[in-house]
Design a protein that fits this description.
three-stranded antiparallel sheet; about 45% strand; 12 strands; binds flavin mononucleotide; globular; seven-stranded antiparallel sheet; 3 helices; Pnp Oxidase, Chain A; about 15% helix; alpha+beta
């Protein structure tokens, strides 16, 4: 058996970008978490997937809302990645400038790019749910990505 510690260490050698995945509760409160388990799935239709820990505060609200936004963080947004993984869930959007996407998903200002998705499918994936979203709107701007490699966050370029 592969230990959790070894698996985490080995997978840390696969460099990824870093995103904030967010949605809204039925009462309209923003919920979100830092996610690097994000990838595109299909071009036609345009599909992406995110893997969300079943125990994450945002897991149930995101599935209930039926939509989620993915903000791709820039190299200068490392603090945001820490806030969205470590701060109390109810404090994560404090003092943060967000705009809602067309589906109503919170998108953080200054992100490198974003997609706003409808939840299309949810598959079991061990202690995570594999959430497939159909992209209903998306856009990108300038900047360099925040990267996650060997357990460290680092900005690329300027
Ligand atoms: C760089 C980074 C990547 C992460 N990627 C994921 C991920 O893909 N899926 C996930 O469920 N949690 C991921 N996490 C953990 C969550 O952001 C968060 O720490 C966890 O859900 C804590 O649960 P809470 O939101 O209930 O406080 C990541 C954390 C960091 C710092």
């Amino acid at each position: 058996m592969v230990s959790e510690e070894k698996f985490r260490w080995v997978m840390g050698h696969f460099a990824t970008g870093v995103t904030v995945v967010a949605s809204r509760t039925p009462g309209g409160e923003a919920v979100g978490l830092t996610v690097n388990a994000f990838t595109s799935v299909s071009l036609d239709p345009p599909l992406v997937l995110v893997c969300l820990h079943k125990d994450a505060e945002g897991h149930d609200p995101i599935l209930q809302a039926g939509h989620f936004g993915v903000s791709f963080l820039t190299g200068g947004q490392g603090n945001m990645a820490l806030t969205f993984s470590q701060a109390d869930p109810e404090d994560r959007f404090k003092d943060l400038s967000v705009k809602d996407g067309p589906l109503g998903s919170p998108l953080v200002d200054g992100a490198l790019a974003w997609v706003d998705c409808k939840v299309m499918d949810v598959f079991p994936g061990g202690d995570h749910s594999i959430v497939v979203g159909q992209v209903e709107a998306c856009d990108a701007g300038d900047g360099d990505p925040l990267m996650f490699f060997r357990g460290n966050l680092s900005g690329m370029g300027s």
